[in-house]
Automatic annotation (TrEMBL):
Its main location: membrane. InterPro entries: ABC-2_transporter_component, ABC2_TM, Motility-assoc_ABC_perm_GldF. It is found in: Cell membrane. The keyword Transmembrane helix applies. The chain crosses the membrane at residues 12-35, 55-72, 99-121, 133-155, 162-180, 219-237. It is a multi-pass membrane protein. Residues 53-188 form the ABC-2 type transporter transmembrane domain. This is Gliding motility-associated ABC transporter permease subunit GldF. Keywords: Cell membrane, Membrane, Transmembrane, Transmembrane helix.
Length: 240
């Protein structure tokens, strides 16, 4: 598993694509937070990173699938999957190694955004910020990308075409993130099953963590959803 982890990380950073994906994410976040007037934190009048945590999931909907799309699809396309099957390693170890590698790359992408916290801290009056809410939001973002990465890995097992895997992962991530919330607002569900349907979506639990409160139900939700998609991925590669 460790060898697969190292191979996947090295492969991602062996081409310009890996660095470009990270650069695009950081560039977009910088533009939205400091340049574009409608989302600039300078126009808020108070020190907050709410806009960052509101916008980040939508950019990650594209960034994470871009990182995971080649995880298995490339193996199937080039025929290296047949070689990998001959190694003395289980299907679960293969999935776990690739998952942890992709997750590590995404978390590495998020790491430079900590500078936004220091920026807000320096700009705030008396260097006072809501550190609890920011910490909770970062925890929520970590759990969010953990689920997105699992979804992306699962979609990569469905096809040998990286572009198709990217599109599938982006759609599924979007559906799980916002789809249940949208369905719960349908008129026929108001005052009844809307709460339970909304609770199936990621956005509800992510917003709950963004308030600075870490509840067991939210943590358990992210762990269960990520584990479920990893199990689906394992099932798919076992079939192959």
């Amino acid at each position: 598993m460790i060898s697969i982890f190292k191979k996947e990380v090295a492969q991602f950073f062996s081409s310009l694509t890996g660095y470009l994906a990270i650069a695009v994410f950081l560039l977009l976040m910088g533009l939205f937070l400091f340049i574009f007037p409608d989302t600039s934190i300078f126009d808020y009048g108070y020190a907050t990173l709410d806009k960052f945590f509101d916008l980040a999931p939508y950019i990650l909907l594209l960034l994470v699938p871009a990182i995971t799309m080649r995880s298995f699809s490339e193996e199937f396309k080039t025929g290296t999957w047949e070689l990998l099957k001959t190694k003395s390693i289980s299907a679960w170890q293969i999935v776990t190694g690739k998952y942890l590698a992709a997750l590590a790359v995404v978390l590495l992408t998020l790491l430079p955004t900590v500078i936004y916290v220091f920026t807000i801290y320096q700009l705030s009056i008396n260097q006072s910020i809501d550190s609890g809410a920011i910490m909770g939001s970062y925890f929520g973002l970590v759990f969010l990308v953990a689920v997105f990465t699992a979804i992306g890995l699962f979609c990569s097992t469905l096809t040998n075409n990286g572009v198709v895997a990217f599109l599938l992962a982006s759609f599924v991530c979007f559906a799980v993130y916002m789809g249940f919330g949208a369905v719960s607002k349908m008129p026929g569900l108001q005052g009844g099953a809307d709460y339970w349907i909304e609770s199936l979506g990621i956005d509800t639990h992510y917003l709950s963590m963004s308030r600075g409160v870490l509840e067991l139900k939210d943590v358990a939700y992210f762990i269960i959803v990520a584990a479920a998609f990893l199990l689906f991925a394992k099932r798919n590669i076992v079939k192959k």
